[in-house]
Amino acid sequence: MVTMRDVADRAGVSIATVSFVVNGTKPVAADTRTRIEQAMADLGFRRNAVARALASRRTHILAMAYPALDHDLSSSALEFFTSAAATAARLDHHLVLWPVSNDAAELKELIGEGLVDGVLLMEVQLDDPRVAVLEAARMPFALIGRTADPTPYVHVDIDFDATIREAVAHLHELGHRRLVLVSGDRSDPGMIDYGPYVRSEAAFQATAEAYGLEPTILRSGTTAAAGRELAGRLAHDHPDVTAVMIMREYASLGLVSELRRTGRDIPGDISVLPLVASRELPSLSDPALTIMRSPGPELGRLGVESLITLVAGGSVPPPQLIPCRLEIASSTAPPPES
Amino acid sequence: MVTMRDVADRAGVSIATVSFVVNGTKPVAADTRTRIEQAMADLGFRRNAVARALASRRTHILAMAYPALDHDLSSSALEFFTSAAATAARLDHHLVLWPVSNDAAELKELIGEGLVDGVLLMEVQLDDPRVAVLEAARMPFALIGRTADPTPYVHVDIDFDATIREAVAHLHELGHRRLVLVSGDRSDPGMIDYGPYVRSEAAFQATAEAYGLEPTILRSGTTAAAGRELAGRLAHDHPDVTAVMIMREYASLGLVSELRRTGRDIPGDISVLPLVASRELPSLSDPALTIMRSPGPELGRLGVESLITLVAGGSVPPPQLIPCRLEIASSTAPPPES
DNA sequence: CTGAAAGCGCTTACAG
DNA sequence: CTGAAAGCGCTTACAG
């Protein structure tokens, strides 16, 4: 391994001066700098990340804490991870994966090791015990999602208000007046307080009121089978509904396939609009789905950027709320003539 | 931060002795040990991972190098990551994400930082330039996948031979005699040499020969749309085929939906068997798909275990080839009477 | 603009 | 069984 000592010797300077040019920490005379840079190139020097971390008290490592397999994160999560890791790399950082459960003790242990400068907290609950652990440890963190009152914390999240507004506007423009929002099943203990459901439902109530519509809300599990079951409930309990906004992407596949199987035309008889969908979803269904696409990559990037800003001790970065964007395909159209 | 110095002072010993009990490195008298453990508990000591790493020359950090979004890794990849990270944690390690391209220079830079003890290389090509980089840097690594001749390297991979054998056996037992294997499109430059395709095709040739069947091989892109297009080719060019084994899971969804749209009953007229599928796939389709399920979690675990063994300098862990397992649902059945 | 030196918090021969 | 001390490869006041 080539160390600063080696570089310093070859350039005829002290290791402090080498450090100054490597980090740009202090001005160095042009010719000295040139000699050092030459020596580094000759020897193939790379600054050791561990020694740097110990001396500077900054590891430049960030942790991504996510509850392993608690829900179907799958494809959005991978987009998110990749974007976050790439952003971290661009800003001279690394990203470690902490697939910790929502219980706080495990997180506390990991923090104690002193390996990371900050934590990105995914799948935040409205009342999240992990936040207290992070605060007590004075560990910088950013929320991906929001607690009930996220004001005191650095956070980035989907803008559910704007997402619902755009979705409703799209359907309303097409002529739909009987819309339903399918939110997630909250019977699961961990899900009672799940922010995306709570906020979307509230946003739908408000938006529907603004349009003078009745805000019908249904719940569904996450699987395609749950989506199929939903199709039955819809036909039986809400036969007049002409458009469905649905938050679970796998369930939307089951919903569409069961609706078609039972003779409903999509989008002729009923429009289907998945709300927080990943890139792959549209093409997985027939007809291709119009979606509100999840801003996974943007959230990953912004989460890391915000966290690094916070760690650097600059100003506290403002919250970032990013709406899903409408991507039109073939599952929404004007309602049938009535 | 509580350091070993603090613990040593409170227990009335030297920091060396504290280190011995923390790591179990050397025998320590029972009462001394008790005093130290009490002091650690009182102070809430946690050994600093960075200092440990610098002194011991082992960071206990592993890197997961994967080409970001080169293909559709999505859901299997997340299972893999999570399993790998959890295994790492269980063995006192961390996992960092390196979404590096397949080009070797970037990997070399990262290795140079000295942050990681070893690298897990995903999406290995038959002739992979990254392997040379790793070898030159004397960086321990394990392949997830295989180079053309993986013998010299620690590797874990899907056992394509056994997977194809079980898939063919399943279909043959049902009575199918006209099978087709749908492999991936290799027109993409990076894909010409893609191991999973190459090995599956070879395995199918061999297995078909053993059964006295004609080994028809088609290629398809990864998307659902590509799967739909495939349905047309199948009907037109291979009308007598009664069973399709297919390697791309999204394409299998398009294939099934297009077959049904054009009036083919599944599994009545034709059986469909996705070969390296993730857990979610079966329920995403109607009928639910019988699959050969990808051993993502097992590969993640074995990859990390093998790599840690290698890093620890023990014996070189043997290759691990894990077959996909047959999970029967509703897309395979006896062929129609002819 | 540059250097000598302390120090980050551990591990690990070495000595006793 | 335990301790004193060197050392891992950097950063960072401090002095000049």
UniProtKB/TrEMBL annotation, chains A, B:
Protein name according to UniProt: DNA-binding LacI/PurR family transcriptional regulator
Alphabetical UniProt keywords: DNA-binding, Transcription, Transcription regulation
Name the source organism.
Microlunatus parietis
List each coiled-coil range. none
Pfam families listed in its UniProt record? LacI, Peripla_BP_3
Mind telling me which SUPFAM superfamilies this protein's record contains? lambda repressor-like DNA-binding domains (SSF47413), Periplasmic binding protein-like I (SSF53822)
Q: Which GO terms describe its molecular function?
A: DNA-binding transcription factor activity; transcription cis-regulatory region binding
- Residues forming the HTH lacI-type domain are 2-56
Q: Which domain of life is it from?
A: Bacteria
